[in-house]
């Protein structure tokens, strides 16, 4: 922006486009195991998000990228490049997080570690589930987000295996979660838009 435009608060065409174009938000499924319920939770979040019309939302399933275990590869597998390319195309994230042994899944940690710059200066929300709402997994994820320069938002919908799932397999969320999901998405969209100007 020129000095004249700065002085009078005028935006360049590039800045106008940045502020008017819809953001791309990825809803990342954090589990790859057989019989997982994360696709049900992810689709529920996407259904709520799509009704808002404030961003482009898409499901991003780490299982689709067939990432190897970090440290067991020379880094040439096509899934690694595709994973980084997908993350690079996104402005923000919503992580669907399951709690395993008081933390996130190994698959999600592996996927987080297979990228660096593609995560930087972006925002993320967390939707977690488990016997205690997945709260401990979410707290671990927040520490990782800090290292990857992902700004995680405060509002955090927590889903209980006892009250939001039937027989541990059928996702039947209580209506009280709707407000929390929308508040979280408000924050993700606002922060993602702000951080886009940093990138």
Q: What does this protein look like?
A:
This protein has helices at residues 3-7, 13-20, 38-50, 78-88, 106-113, 135-147, 177-198; strands at 23-29, 55-61, 92-98, 122-130, 150-152, 158-160, 165-166, 170-171. With 199 residues, it is an alpha/beta fold. 40% of the residues lie in helices and 20% in strands.
Mean pLDDT: 92
Residues in β-strands, percent: 15-25%
Tell me about the biggest sheet?
6 strands, parallel
Q: Kindly provide the name of the CATH class.
A: Alpha Beta
Secondary structure tally: strands: 8
Low-pLDDT runs of 5+ residues are none
The CATH topology annotation reads as Rossmann fold
Structural class: alpha/beta
Query: Could you name the CATH homologous superfamily?
Result: Flavodoxin domain
Number of helices: 7
Instruction: List the helices and strands in order.
Output: HHEHEHEHEHEEEEH
- How many domains? 1
Query: From the coordinates shown, what is the CATH architecture?
Result: 3-Layer(aba) Sandwich
Shape: globular
Rg result? 18 Å
Helical content class: 40-55%
**End-to-end CA span:** 15 Å
